[in-house]
Amino acid sequence: MTPSWPRVRQLTLADQAYRAIRTRILNGQLAMGEFIREQEVSEALGVSRTPVREALGRLASEGFLERIPHRGFRVPEDQWDTLLELYPIVSALELLAGRLALPQITRQDLDRLKELNRELSREQEAGNVRRCIEVNNEFHGFICERSGSRRLCELLHDLRSQLGRLEVWYYSQPEAAAESVAEHDDLIRAIETGDHGQALSLLEQNMSLTWRRLQEEAEGSEAAEDPQVAD
Questions:
Q1: Residue 139, pLDDT score
Q2: Which has the least CB within 10 A, 19, 46, 192, 197?
Q3: What distance in Å separates the CA atoms of residue 60 and residue 4, rounded to the nearest whole number?
Q4: How far is 133 from 61, CA to CA, in rounded Å?
């Protein structure tokens, strides 16, 4: 007997409000430190305050917003630092997924990775930042799927979604996005030749691209603001 299909759930108003607010946070349309007024969002979305309140609470629990007693919610002022702390965690989980996945990757899987990287290159050339992030996540998610660990993939997906705002910053730089494509090519070649050690090293390096560029930007800014001149 053919098993019945599961029922598809429609998004609730709270889910839709959550997605709308989170998109604005990740796109930088809501600045760090900016307060989000429940009533204003309710009126803008054309829904009651109840689903908006639920969405704001969920975003606060995930770290996208912070709850200020007696004042409401705001985009965290220290969000960059908080998000940067996630990169070593994501990198460690990516390595775990890679170790489990590499022995399972087939020729067809490599073809799919190449296809995704070609798409990433096209979107980078077109300047489609949001799609670049999506395709990059698909690339890494595909590798994780080959690990056979559903829970590991879920953890990585959730963590990557929290890094979205930093990834917008990274992929907005054409040379940075091109660097990601080149590293993916190197990773695919290492997998093709069976050099799993090199592949894992490249995977770890690739996951730290955004973190490294942010560190370089910070160091460059500090140097520019330093009034001392070397003798």
A1: 96
A2: 46
A3: 37
A4: 23
